[in-house]
Amino acid sequence: MSDPREQTSITYAGAGVDVEAGDKAVELMKASVRRATRPEVLGGLGGFAGMFDASAIARMARPVLATSTDGVGTKVAIAQALDRHDTIGFDLVGMVVDDIVVCGAEPLFMTDYIACGKVVPERIAAIVSGIARACEQAGVALVGGETAEHPGLLGVDEYDVAGAATGVVEHADVLGPQRVAPGDVVLGLASSGLHSNGYSLVRRVIAHAGWALDRHVDEFGRTLGEELLEPTRVYSADLLALIRADGVDVHALSHVTGGGLGANLARVLPDHLHARVDRATWTPPAIFSTVGRLGSVPQADLERTLNQGVGFVAMVPADSVDAATALLEARGIRTWAMGEVHEAATAPIEDGIEVVSGAKGVDGGSVQVVGSHPTSA
């Protein structure tokens, strides 16, 4: 029997974890993270916890904290296939902080988590640079994060990202179903593309069609991979400007993510109200019709899975429509009136068309999307 003392020593590095690579990644990301800050941030990168001076909250009458956590889903597979990692952070930040602004809260700070099969410092730094740039755009402090190496669980080129953020809103200023009223106009805010939802469907469709990511697609004006990797639009700073603007009364906001337009709009309606949305008011970008055509995907399935060109919805009274639209358009977000809110009991419901209600466990209102999209923009 062999002497155990004569066996080769097993080290952490030998098990596949490179601590020095992790340290190098931190050094490479420092400059990016320093830009994603706010005056309230205390301490620097590398602490056990991120610290944020919350004394301003004490001056609020009834501060309400809002928190959200999310990931990017299988869109990371596109980034990995293209070996481009500096945009996926916008998808992460958008998915997290834009959920917070739905209730009217200002996102304050965020943390991120990256799990990977092998720490490649330059790749981790690229991911974090995108997160930091998106946080800077949103006015959110990136106060900390974690990179974890999981050899044997993830491949050497595989990773996943997740994040969490916290915001605050005065209780009297909370947006939501309690503010929505009959006659409110449903405003659509254009998405930048697919954002970060439905990539399991999209990837299945393009694989079935045999399309390569480097295929140039005339309708997109670029390659398929470039279209699929288009970063999620981060709306929070623009929506906070809208909420705070004179002459605009925002009643509710909805972030159009998983579940699509109808389901997410229904979540922010009270149970006695119904929203009617007309497809004739907008043309989805070409990526949506391309996915539908290549996969013969039924329209109902497309609309339950993808945002169809609508990244956010705002509900405002009719006398706020012009001012709200002008403000958002001036900030580079195409905005249009796409529907109206009615009393459910007297709403103009069209027979034979699905009415969405009770979405994502919320006992809210109902939504019917009618009509057809124009064939060209």
TrEMBL record:
Record-linked InterPro entries: PurM-like_C_dom, PurM-like_C_sf, PurM-like_N, PurM-like_N_sf, PurM_cligase
Catalyzed reactions: 2-formamido-N(1)-(5-O-phospho-beta-D-ribosyl)acetamidine + ATP = 5-amino-1-(5-phospho-beta-D-ribosyl)imidazole + ADP + phosphate + H(+)
EC number, UniProt record: 6.3.3.1
Enzyme class: ligase
Keywords per UniProt: ATP-binding, Cytoplasm, Ligase, Nucleotide-binding, Purine biosynthesis
Sequence ranges assigned to domain PurM-like C-terminal in this UniProt record: 182-344
Stretches assigned to the PurM-like N-terminal domain: 60-169
Compartments where found: Cytoplasm
Pathway: Purine metabolism; IMP biosynthesis via de novo pathway; 5-amino-1-(5-phospho-D-ribosyl)imidazole from N(2)-formyl-N(1)-(5-phospho-D-ribosyl)glycinamide: step 2/2
Family: Belongs to the AIR synthase family.
Protein name: Phosphoribosylformylglycinamidine cyclo-ligase
